[in-house]
Amino acid sequence: MQLYISPTSPYARKAWMVVLEKGLAEEVEIIAVNPWESPSELTSKNPLSQVPALAIGQDQAVYDSRVICTYLDGLRDKPALVPQSGMERMAVLRMEALADGMCDVAVATFLARKDNGDNPDTPAIKRQLGKIEAVLKVMESEVPLFEGALHLGTIAYSAALAYLDLRYGELQWRQQVPGLAKWFETIAQRPAMLTTAPPA
Ligand SMILES: N[C@@H](CCC(=O)N[C@@H](CS)C(=O)NCC(=O)O)C(=O)O
């Protein structure tokens, strides 16, 4: 299998972390591409030219990150990153949806701010930044529920928070949510987080 990533994509980082946490590093080759240039090696796998995309065998490909992560989790029983069924499964997938939703806002807002030149923070952009802060508060309130756990929900939270570090340093998110920051300090030391860090 080949996993197409870009080093700065939080969605790709989540999928790559799943590869590593599942012990699939030997079976999945990581290929870095620039999705914004629509390279044919990516568009032939995903017509949306988005990373991550996972090529399986000669002529099968899977996207987006949620589908890829669920697929990878199913390849091996242990460690189980997504519970099999019921409320536990829903809770983990809901965490992934929240983290991905924050990334959707953060990625789109990062691009919009770049386009806005000297006046980056229009009312519409301020509204989007408010969503990031709202998500952080929800994540903070959930720390007692997920502390110490490793599953797709906590992996997705880690990738999303690391993206804030990459693109939104000025937000100083740790000051707003100290409990979440403390949790992140520990998970950020996992080999899967260290290996997938974007180049400085
Ligand atoms: N919902 C998708 C989002 C993927 C996505 O937006 N990836 C961005 C990089 S962060 C991308 O490849 N953008 C290129 C483009 O949209 O042309 C997923 O979870 O995989």
SSE inventory with pairings:
Elements: E1 2-5, H1 10-21, E2 29-32, H2 40-43, E3 53-56, E4 60-62, H3 65-75, H4 86-115, H5 123-146, H6 152-167, H7 173-176, H8 178-187, H9 191-195
Parallel strand pairs: 1-2
Antiparallel strand pairs: 1-3, 3-4
Helix pairs in contact: 1-3, 1-6, 4-5, 4-6, 5-8
Glutathione is lined by residues 6, 9, 11, 35-36, 49-52, 63-66, 100, 107.
What features would you highlight for this structure?
200 residues, alpha+beta, Glutaredoxin, globular, 9 helices, 4 strands, Glutathione S-transferase Yfyf (Class Pi), Chain A, domain 2
Characterise the protein shown here:
- The protein has helices spanning 10-21, 40-43, 65-75, 86-115, 123-146, 152-167, 173-176, 178-187, 191-195, and strands at 2-5, 29-32, 53-56, 60-62.
- It folds into two domains: 2-75, 3-Layer(aba) Sandwich (Glutaredoxin), CATH 3.40.30; 86-190, Up-down Bundle (Glutathione S-transferase Yfyf (Class Pi), Chain A, domain 2), CATH 1.20.1050.
- Helices cover 58% and strands 8% of the residues.
- Helix 1 (10-21) packs across helix 6 (152-167) and helix 4 runs antiparallel to helix 5.
- It is globular and about 45 Å long.
- By secondary structure, the chain is α+β, with helices and mostly antiparallel strands.
- Strand 1, helix 1 (10-21) and strand 2 (29-32) form a beta-alpha-beta unit.
- The mean pLDDT is 96.
- Strands 2-1-3-4 form a four-stranded mixed sheet.
- The structure holds glutathione.
- Residues 6, 9, 11, 35-36, 49-52, 63-66, 100, 107 line the site of glutathione (GSH).
